[in-house]
Amino acid sequence: MTNRIHETDRMVFDVKGLNLWYDQEQALKDINIAMEKNRVTAIIGPSGCGKSTFIKTLNRMVENIPSVRITGEILYHQQNIFEKTISVEELRTMVGMVFQKPNPFPKSIYENVVFGPKIHGIKDKNLLMEIAENSLKRAALWDEVKDRLKKNALGLSGGQQQRLCIARALAVNPDVLLMDEPTSALDPIATGKIEDLVLELKKDYTIVIVTHSMQQAARISDKTAFFLTGELLEFDDTKRIFSNPKHRKTEDYVTGRFG
Amino acid sequence: MNYQMESIKPKEVAHMKVKEKNKMLKIETDKKRLKKRLFLNQLFKNLFSLSVIFALVVLGILFYRIIADSIGWLNIKFITGNLSIFPEKAGIYGVIIGSVWLMSIVVPVTMILGVSTAIYLEEYAHKGNIQMFIKVNISNLASVPSVIFGLLGLAVFSRLFNLGSSILAGGLTMSLLVLPIVVVSSQEAIKAVPSYLREASYAMGADKWTTVRRVVLPVALPGILTGAILSLSRAIGETAPLVVLGIPALLLRVPSSVMDNFTALPIQIYYWTLDTVLTAEYANLAAATIVVLLLILFIMNSVAIVIRNKFEVKF
Amino acid sequence: MSDREIDVREIIQNNIRNKKDIVNKIMPVFFFVMASVSVLTTVGIIVTLVVDAYKFFSAVGISEIFSTRLAPLRADPSFGILPLINGTIIITAIAMLVAIPLGLTAALYLSQFASQRVRKTVKPILEVLAGIPTIVYGFFAYTFVTPLLMSLIPALESKNALSPGIVMGIMIIPLVASLSEDAMNAVPEILKEGSLALGSTKLEVAFKVVIPSAISGIIASFVLAISRAIGETMIVTIASGSSKAFTFDITKSMQTMTSYIVEFTSGDAGSGTTGYYSLYAVGLILLLFTLVMNLIAQYISRKYREEY
Questions:
Q1: Percentage of chain B surpassing pLDDT 90?
Q2: Band of the pLDDT at C268, cuts 50, 70, 90?
Q3: Which fold has domain B82-311?
Q4: Considering only alpha carbons, which residue of chain A is nearest residue B205?
C-alpha cells in the first residue's frame, strides 16, 4: 500500500502490516492505514470484507472472540496498542465505540450515560450529573430527555437510543469514536440526525465509521477506505474515491455495480 | 357419435354398466370409510381428553380431601401452638419455625453456590472439557434420588462433621439437593442476557467482573430469583433426606440456633400420617399441616410469577 | 473542549492506572471453587456409597445378597436384596401402567387436538400436579386411595403395592405428558401439514406422522419416568409399608429400595453394624439403577435431536 500519510503530529492511528485470523481463516490481510485527528474516516466494502473486524481491532474488542490471532501493529499516538504495557481498559476509554444495533442498558437514561465514569471510579454526584448533561448535549439528546433522565432507556425510540449510546461513549471523554454501521437499524430521519451529529462531533473527536451506505460515506467522511475480502484495496480522500478511484473494483463498488 | 354408439356391442354395454356400478359402490364405500375415519377421529379425541380430565379430577379430589380433613383443625391455635401427643392440643408453631430455620440455611448456601457456578459456567469457563464435565455432572446430579442425598448428608454432615440431626446438617443436605435447579435456572437467566450488552460494557473499558456485576447480574436477577424460589419450594416440601438424617418425630422445643435439633413441615406430615393407625385424628393434623405447606408453596410460586412478569426485561 | 472534560479523562485514566486488579484475579478462582462444589457432591455421593457398600459386600456373602430372605434386624440376620428389587420393579411397573398411557394420551390431546385456550389453561394446572410435594401424595394414597381400593378389592391389605403404585403413576403423568408433548411439538409443522393436506384426519396424522417422528423423545420421557419412579420415596414408604417378604401379590405390603433406606435410618441403625452398611449398598444399587436410566434417556434424546 502506498497511501500512508506522514503527518505524525496529526496522526491518531497508524496501522502497520495488520493481519488477523479467525482460526485458520484470514479475515484481515496486511492492512496499512493511517488516520488523522479530527477527521471522519469511512470504511466501506461489501459484507464479509473485514470492515467490521477491522474497526473492532482498533479498540481490541475483537479479542473477545476466542481463537482470534493477530500480527502486525496498530500505533495509537505512536504507541502499539498490542504491547503488554498497554491496558485494554485505558485504551477503550480513549477509543469509544458505538454499535450497529442501539444497545443501551436496561437502566435509566442517566445511569446509561454515567456508566463509564462510574465504573472508572467517579463517585461525585454533582460531577456525574454534569458529565451526563454535557454528554447528552453533545449527542444532541439533552432537550429530548432532560425531563425524564430517571426513565428507562428502553422507552426511547431507536434513533434516540443510538444517540444515547453515543452520549454514553462520550461520557468518559474519549479521543476517538468508532462507529460500526451506527445507522443501519434506523429510519431515514433518525439517520439524518446521527449524520449531522457526526459532522458536529468531528470538531472534537476523531471518528472512524463503518457504513454500508455509499451516500453516507460521501456525505460525512473526509477519507474513505475500501475493503475487499480482507484487504484494504484503496484509501484516499472521499472525493477522490467517489469521483476518480484508482481501482476498477472500487469504482464498480461505489457506483453500485456490485456489493 | 351415433355411429360410435351403434358400434358398441351389447356385451360391451353390459361390461360398462358393471364398471359404472363398481365405481358408484367405491364412492359409497369411500363415503362410509370417511365417516368411519371422522368418527374414529372424534372418538379418540374424546378418549384422549379423558386422560387430561382424569388428572384434573384427581387433583380436585386431592385438594378437596385435604381441605375437608383439615376443616375444624386448622385455626390460629394450631398455627401458634406447640406439638403435643394429644391431637386436640397439638400446634405446629415449632414445626413452621423449623422449616424457616431450614430455609435460612438453604437460601444463602444455594444462592451463593448456585449463582457462582452458573456465572463460572456461562461467563468465565473456557469452552472445553472442564466446563463440559461440570455441566454433565450437574445434569446427572439433578436426577439422583433425594433419598441418596439423605445418605450423603448422614455420612458426611451428621457423622463425619458431627452435626447430628441439626438444622445445619439438614440445611446443607437440602442445599446440595436443590443446587442443580438453581444452577440450571441461573444459567438460563444469564444466557438470556444479550451479548450486545456485554459488548457495550467492554467497549466502555469495563473489565470482566465489572461487566458481570453491573450489567449481566442486574439483567439476569429476576430470572435467577424466579429459579431460586422454585428450588426453595422444592426444598420446603422435600421429606426423604430429612427422614434419613433422623430428624425426630416429636420435638417439643422450638429451635433457636442452627445447631439445634428441629422438625419441619413435611416431616411432621410424615409422622402424623404414619400414626393415623394409632390415632385417627392424626390424619386431620396431617391434612391441616399439608394445607399450611401448600399455602406456603402457593405464595412462593405466586411471588415467582410476579417477579417473572414484572421485572424481567424484554429485549 | 472544556477544561472540566479534560479533568474527567485524567481522573479516569489515573483511576485505571492505580486500580488494584485483585478482584479480577480473585473472582474467577472463587467462581471455580464454587462450581467445583457440585463435582465434590458427586464425588462425595460415590465415595460414601462405595466405601460403606464395600464394607457390606465384604461382610455378607454373594449368595446371601442374591437370596429372597431379607431380615436385617433378626438375631440371625439375612440381607437378601431380591425382595427390595422385586418391590421396586413391581411398584414402578404399576406406576408406569398408569403414567405412560395417561401421560402419552394427554400429550397427544394437548399437542394435536386441544385448542390454544384449553392448552393454556390445562398446562399450568398439570404443573401444579407436578409441583405438589410427594409427601402429600403419600398422605393421599394412604388415607384416601387405599380405603377406596379396599372397598373395591376386599382382599387388599391396608399397606399394599397397588395404591402407592397408582398414586405415583398419577404424580408422574405431568412428567410424561410435558416431555412427550415437547417431543411432539418438535415435529416440523410441514410434515403434519403435508399429511393433513392429503385429507388425513388429525388422528391419522397423530399416529402416522407425529408419533413415529417423535418416538425417541417419547421413549426418553418414559425412561425418565421410570427413573423418577424408582427413586420416589415417600409415597411408597407411607402407603406400601415395610414387609420384607418376597411376593408378587400387589395387594400385599412390599418394600422398595428407597423405603428400606428410610425405614432403616429412622429406626436408629447403629453405626458400624452390617445393617447400617446395608443402607449404602442399597443406595449404591439404587443410584446405579437411576444412573443407567438417565444415560439411556440422554442417549435416546441425543439421537432424536440429530434427526431434524
A1: 65
A2: low
A3: MetI-like fold (1.10.3720)
A4: A89
The per-residue pLDDT for A226 is 94
pLDDT in tens, A147-175: 999 999 999 999 999 999 999 999 999 99
pLDDT of residue A6 exceeding 60, the answer is no
> For position C305, what pLDDT does the model report?
61
When scoring A86, A90, A97, A105 by the number of chain B Cβ atoms within 10 A, the one with the most, hence best to mutate, is: A105
Residues of B in contact with C143 (CB under 8 A): 65, 69, 273, 276, 283, 286-287
Domain ranges of chain B: 2-70, 82-311
Distance of CA B264 to the CA centre of its chain: 19
Q: Which grid cell is A148?
A: 425524564
> Each residue of B171-228: pLDDT tens digit?
999 999 999 999 999 999 999 999 999 999 999 999 999 999 999 999 999 999 999 9
Neighbours of C153 (CB within 10 A): 13
Residue C157 exposure: Cα atoms within 13 Å on the Cβ side: 14
What does the pLDDT read at residue B246? Answer: 85
* C2, C4, C12 ranked by CB distance to A93: nearest: C12
Asked if C290 lies within 8 A of B145 by C-beta distance, the reply is yes
Does residue B201 belong to the interface with chain A, where contact is any CB pair within 8 Å? Answer: yes
Contact C230 B145 (CB under 8 A): yes
Report yes or no: A137 and A166 within 8 Å, Cβ to Cβ. no
CA B22 to chain centre: 60
Cα–Cα distance between C104 and C112 in angstroms, integer? 12
- Check if the beta carbon of residue C281 is closer than 8 Å to that of residue C295: no
Q: Which residues of B touch C227 (CB under 8 A)?
A: 143
| The residue to which cell 401421560 is assigned | C103
Q: What is the CATH number of domain C70-306?
A: 1.10.3720.10
Residues 6 to 35 of C: which have CB under 8 A from any A CB? Answer: 6, 8-9, 11-13, 15-17, 19
Name all domains of chain A by residue range, CATH numbers in brackets: 8-254 (3.40.50.300)
A93 touching C (Cβ < 8 Å): yes
How close does chain C come to B75, measured CA to CA in Å? 20
Q: From chain B, pick out residues whose CB is under 8 angstroms from the CB of C135.
A: 237, 239, 266, 269-270, 273, 290
Residues B117, B99: Cα–Cα separation, whole Å:
26
- Give the residue among C50, C131, C117, C10 at the shortest CA–CA distance from A127: C10
Q: Which chain B residue is nearest to residue A97, measuring alpha carbons?
A: B203
pLDDT in tens, B128-162: 889 999 999 999 999 999 999 999 999 999 989 99
CA-to-CA separations, C246 to C69, C159, C249, C255, in angstroms, rounded = 7, 15, 9, 9
Q: What integer pLDDT is reported at residue C3 of this predicted model?
A: 61
User: Do C13 and A173 make contact, defined as CB atoms within 8 angstroms?
Assistant: no
**Which residue type, as a one-letter code, is found at position B10?**
P
Neighbours of C188 (CB within 10 A): 11
